[in-house]
Write a structure and sequence with these properties.
5-stranded mixed beta sheet, mainly beta, Methylamine Dehydrogenase, Chain H, 445 residues
Length: 445
């Protein structure tokens, strides 16, 4: 499945009056591991003051660019979330005819991924012959440079993570064929060669576990393909591992999990994955999984993120035994070990769902949609008690534009968010009245 395809169906279940968002960004970034990775051929990136000149392995020259701001000279103290406000980045050429679906960052730069969009009626996370993968980079979240992706034709990028070794980007080439790129610094990109381990696999999440990476996703069974079609009707879960992000091998003896995960989060030593219609599974090795669905969950866990050595699960409380929408309350659960979960307190509570989160210094911010399609934004200092923020990105899934004053907000989606050198950024796209799509970025500062 995209991480995109399964999450889209889950959101339809949660809020029937809200237009279905086409998936949660898979880009849930892994929490850095405290273990020291073994030496690999990709060296960790240095911290440049500005983009360096081409190297012998550099990718083709950037296209449709606006020059990025100079690189940071010192680490900035995070702006407390209580004082921060969301604002939309001014549109510029790098955002034209494209959409952003995932974002990650290190202390130097942000890296966002997406596709060119020749057919706006089609979901941006679905591969198409008229589309190409695109990577954007920024030092400040405001000025972005659009990079060409070697071998990225007909690929739909769906996820990106940041790691001490660099960045890993992945997506689909065809319905069930993974494509992957790695970079030590977000500027020089190398395509991971196709191999048997990636053949027929659709990756939905990658995270660090100790001294290695673990990827989860799905593989279509031999009998699963529809007749005369690449569409898969029968998927099984799959897990892969790699020490460097370049060479991937299947994790043997996969047990305890019957459906493909929708994503993957890590505390460094523990993995947690949302599966199916709201279940949660935990593993310490990527092979043996245990169902640990939060008690009293009664609905959907849409995504899980690693945060300061713990986990935060986001979604909504709903079950077929209840009346269902429109009385669906948004929910957050927290865990220190991925096994024992408790329901967090949202002040005030909201009718809708939450599905994205990222750490910001010692705090964490979460985004979602309330009934009617307007956005929700919460902040927390401990993951257990959350306060609704007065400011949200000016985006809406459905319905009229309310009080936002944005005539196109009902066609704008937020797909992912990440914290970086200048604070939190969120990414997505807007469908234009004239046709086509345009990438959108918001900052929280």
């Amino acid at each position: 499945m995209d991480q995109g395809r399964s999450a889209a169906s889950l959101l339809c279940v949660v809020v029937l009056t809200v237009a279905c968002q086409a998936g949660v960004a898979a880009s849930q970034s892994a929490a850095p591991s405290t273990a020291v990775p073994p030496p690999v051929t990709i060296a960790p990136a240095t911290t440049p003051a500005a983009p360096s000149g081409p190297s012998p392995t550099a990718t083709p020259a950037p296209v449709a660019t606006q020059a990025p701001a100079p690189g940071p000279t010192a680490t900035r103290a995070p702006v407390p979330l209580a004082k921060a406000r969301w604002s939309r980045v001014k549109d510029h050429a790098a955002f034209a005819d494209a959409g952003l679906v995932a974002v990650a960052a290190n202390v130097v730069r942000y890296v966002a991924v997406g596709v060119t969009d020749a057919d706006p009626a089609m979901e941006l996370t679905v591969p198409n012959a008229d589309r190409s993968a695109v990577i954007w980079t920024s030092y400040d979240g405001v000025a972005w440079q659009r990079e060409a992706v070697p071998g990225g034709a007909t690929v739909a990028l769906t996820g990106v993570i940041s790691d001490p070794l660099g960045f890993i980007v992945w997506g689909y080439r065809g319905e069930t064929q993974s494509a992957m790129w790695i970079s030590p610094d977000g500027l020089r990109w190398e395509q991971v060669p196709d191999n048997l381990s990636l053949t027929g696999v659709a990756i939905t999440g990658i995270a660090r576990l100790g001294d290695r990476f673990v990827a989860v996703g799905s593989r279509c069974t031999t009998e699963g393909f529809a007749e005369d079609s690449d569409e898969c009707l029968d998927e099984v879960p799959v897990a892969l591992e790699s020490s460097d992000g370049r060479t991937w091998l299947p994790i043997s003896g996969l047990t305890g999990i019957d459906e493909p995960p929708n994503g993957l989060a890590s505390s460094g030593s523990v993995l947690v994955a949302p599966v199916g219609q709201g279940d949660v599974y935990q593993s310490t090795d990527g092979a043996h999984w245990t169902k640990v669905t939060p008690p009293g969950q009664q609905g959907l866990v849409i995504s899980v993120v690693g945060y300061a050595g713990r986990f935060v699960a986001l979604g909504a409380k709903w079950s077929e035994a209840e009346s269902g929408p429109p009385g669906v309350p948004a929910r957050i659960w927290t865990s220190t070990d991925g096994r024992a979960w408790r329901t967090a307190t949202l002040r005030p509570s909201s009718i809708g769902e939450l599905d994205l989160a990222t750490a910001h210094g010692d705090e964490i911010v979460a985004l979602g949609y309330r009934l009617g399609g307007q956005m929700l934004s919460y902040r927390s200092a401990d993951g257990r008690t959350w306060t609704r923020m007065a400011s949200t990105p000016d985006a809406m899934l459905d319905g009229d534009d309310g009080d936002t004053g944005c005539s196109l907000c009902n066609r704008t989606q937020v797909r992912d968010l990440a914290d970086g050198p200048r604070g939190v950024v969120a990414v997505g796209w807007t469908n234009l009245e004239s046709g086509g799509a345009r990438a959108v970025v918001w900052t929280l500062r």
